[in-house]
Amino acid sequence: MTLRLMTISAITTELLKGFGENLRLFCLTILFSLPIGLIISFCSMSKIPPLRWLSKTIVWIIRGTPLMLQLFVVFYVPGIVFGTPMKTRFMAALVAFVINYSCYFSEIYRGGIESVPVGQHEAGMVLGMTKKQIFFNVTLMQVVKKIVPPMSNEIITLVKDTSLARVIALSEIIMVSERFSARGLIWPLFYTGVFFLLFNGILTVLFGKIEKKLDYYTV
Questions:
Q1: Taking a C-beta distance cutoff of 8 angstroms, is the pair 82, 53 a contact?
Q2: Alpha carbon 1 to chain centroid, angstroms
Q3: Most buried residue, 16, 30, 99, 157, by most Cβ within 10 Å?
Q4: Are 130 and 82 in contact (CB under 8 A)?
């Protein structure tokens, strides 16, 4: 029994190390893709046709192709075409994830911004509010309220998608568990689900609290 507990402890420790890579990829993807996604959304709504067309085309391509394929492209193409391979597998994964999720987030931003009735802006002007006051006091919080549910879904999906990084041999939790499976231990592979469930449970509770706080801005 003691030996078995030691084995479980040792495997849990290894899986935690692997999950650390998942969390690092998750956090950095969120850090970069949220602001980049906002920039892309502004480009998609731009009154400059070439910029709008280019932005929408990029979003269409990224949303229309598998993330796994994008990982391969980012990891292999720079070395094959330009002779400058990605420095690390983690960097390749991060670039692919940031590009992918920036495009998805941009559509969520765009939908949220365009969903706020123009009449509210006009009403603010009638009340003597400046454009800055209207944006921060009327428009912004309504946009945030509208995008939190779809954004939370994408963020939770991102947690699970980080496991795709193993296709370019990034040593994340699923890849670590597969090493144990190769030795005849299959349960660590299913055990990884606990890590994802716990982390996504925390995120679900967090987003639930955020949505509740934003109920005041329901239109």
A1: no
A2: 41
A3: 99
A4: no
- At 96, the amino acid letter reads A
CB 86 within 8 A of CB 79: yes
Mean pLDDT, all residues of the chain: 90
Q: What is the DSSP letter of 65?
A: S
Measured from the Cβ of residue 203, the count of other Cβ atoms closer than 10 Å reads 16
The residue type at 74: V
| Token digits of residue 29 | 């993807």
Q: How many CB atoms lie within 10 A of CB 60?
A: 11
Cα(38)–Cα(137) distance, rounded to whole angstroms?
Answer: 19
CA–CA gap between residue 94 and residue 111 (Å, rounded): 26
pLDDT < 70: residue spans in the chain: 1-6, 216-219
**Contact, 22 vs 173, CB < 8 A?**
yes
